[in-house]
Amino acid sequence: MYNLFIVVNVDWFFLSHRKDIALTAQKSGYNVTIVTKDTGKKKDIEALGLKVIDLPMNRSGQNLLEELHTCWFLYHLYRRENPDIVHHVGLKTILWGTLAAKLANIHGIVNAVSGLGIFFSEGNRSIISKLLPKVLRFSHHRNNVAVIFQNDEDKSLFLKHQIIKESQAYKIKGSGVDLKQYNYTPEPEEGKIKVLLTARMIVEKGIFILTDSAIKLRKQYQGKVQFLLCGGLDDNPMAIKESELQAVCDGKYIKWLGYRTDVLDLLKDCHIVAFPSYYKEGLPKSLIEATAIGRPIITTNSIGCKETVIDGYNGYLIPIKDSDTLASRLSFLFENKDVRQSMGRNSRKLAEKDFSIDDVIKKHLDIYRTLFMKLLVTGAAGFIGSHVCKHLLQRGDEVVGLDNINSYYDINLKYGRLSSLGVSQSELSWYKFTRSNVYPRFSFVRMNLEDRQAMQMLFANGNFDVVINLAAQAGVRYSIENPYAYVESNIDGFLNVLEGCRHSQVKHLVYASSSSVYGLNGQVPFSEKDGIAHPVSLYAATKKSNELMAHTYSHLYNIPSTGLRFFTVYGPWGRPDMSPFLFADAILHGRPIKVFNNGNMLRDFTYIDDIVEGVLRVADSIPEGNQCWDAEVADPSMSCAPYKIYNIGNSRPVKLMDFIRAIEMSIGREADKIYLPMQPGDVYQTYADTSSLSREIGFQPNTSLEAGVKETISWYKEFYNL
Q1: Domain annotation for the chain: domains and CATH numbers
Q2: Tell me: the pLDDT tens digits for 334-379?
Q3: Active site amino acids
Q4: Most buried residue, 276, 363, 502, 544, by most Cβ within 10 Å?
Q5: How many CA atoms lie within 13 A of 674 on its CB side?
Q6: Pairwise CA distance, residues 507 & 3, whole Å
Q7: pLDDT per residue over 229-280, tens digit each?
């Protein structure tokens, strides 16, 4: 379990902008601590089940001694608590927090730039403003630092000042909005047309631009329209005084509401949202919320603001400090109800496309993972292994792939898989690490699992966070012909993996088991809670042994381990000894196919993408010992040790003949069939109960047979030039 610190300058900002990310991270297995300035909301955060540490920070102050005190506090906090990841939100926390994290040698840093405020302003000549680029440049030049921007301009500024490299930058459009809570609501049909602005009362937020526009429209619309300013006073150097607000607000036509907690209700009760800001915004949450409710927006063509409006589609973009244009656009919307309502509906469409809180949360968790995950994937030239490597690399992980490239089946297929990962056959040799020319974070080594000395060296130098062991001598029928190969690879090799995990303190071992372990089990669907005492092939026996060995190491050495029982995997790059490949090859070349047991066997055919998704999700979910586990009524799928077993299958068994028909339909040719009896070591049916995977990991395979077969045949024809 990883320790995550989210550092936010003030408590209320955390509750409004980062709460959902923190809670989801906590549910995903992170130990989450919030470091923030307590202004009275600390107990509200603690009520959510989150630990809170008070942050000594003046978010708007520019006193250098004060700022250095904040940095000193964070440095000692990080040294003492040693979090795995620190997530800084806001430029000030980024400035001092990143410096403190570098000095304290924190492994992973995520910095969320939620706007540049006054610090990069041309008029700001404070000492802090001058120091800012230099300090940021020094603190960001290290590995495992990711910076999230809400707009392209802020990102460009960081690149211009050489604070970060392009590879460190991520873009997430705002803090997200709960589309269910902020549901689409048609504008009110009765009463005055209401124009709403929600923001801190700061000059650069365009408060007086809006009031100037209102004054210009007063003669025409007084009594028909109302302008509402919602927001509290602030300690920003450019903050508006209460007396200044009272001077422009009459309480009727122009009304200042002060700080409000019922912004959702105010949005639902208004007709137009105006925000003529020229502050260096990240991406204003108030505008995101307005799009979700379904309101037309008038804002400036300035940094951050313009990300929320497509001009003429869901509102208007106007020049900064231009009260005349603002007044003109407002007047047009006052007079054109149909346009106003159409733009409101378009705002909702934009929110659904770009601003969902679920998407924002997923992107944050993905970034967290990229910071610290280094994985060893064995069997990387294999069917499942190559796909797993590719998906890990695409999400940003560092991967070392291992395979012996044996000749159990056509090695050209294995080299083809490696080639798709950017590893050329001509560059390969035993025990040499070959770097991918496609994925910079991937390297491959040819090695046998059963080579004890080589495996010891690999683990000693690898510093792996997670190991995904997919290497094995496969094949049920081949295990009858060549049993020693299975003991050497699947037993001796797996022991070397376990020993490597033990001595290098790997955080999670994920390993391939098989549905074959169910053997003579007659109860369907197959559940992880069922007994597996009667395997019918040596292959199945070795996979059962893997589960027993893994539990032993989880129990003795506290190594979290998860075994995955795969059910009849098929898809592009599949194994040529498996029925989907054999059938497709025979039909396409006009040869008869062998159909065992008259095609009446049932198989839980599972598409490769579903398998991979399951593997990755499981890898990110580290098991813990179940303290309620009862040895007298033992559940074999879990333990008091950090140990789990999951089925990964489609959970919709298909008759072999139906699978053949799907292949025939995809190819457009009927197969010539030779019917044969059941083969030794085969089982009549496989049928996965995947309820545990769905309930605990949140994933259920769902690729249809037709779609999966179509993709498989398409790949096959392309690979073999048919």
Answers
A1: 3-171 (3.40.50.2000), 193-355 (3.40.50.2000), 373-567+606-650+689-702 (3.40.50.720)
A2: 999 999 999 999 999 999 999 999 999 999 998 987 787 789 999 9
A3: 539
A4: 276
A5: 8
A6: 13
A7: 999 998 777 899 999 999 999 999 999 999 998 999 999 999 999 999 998 7
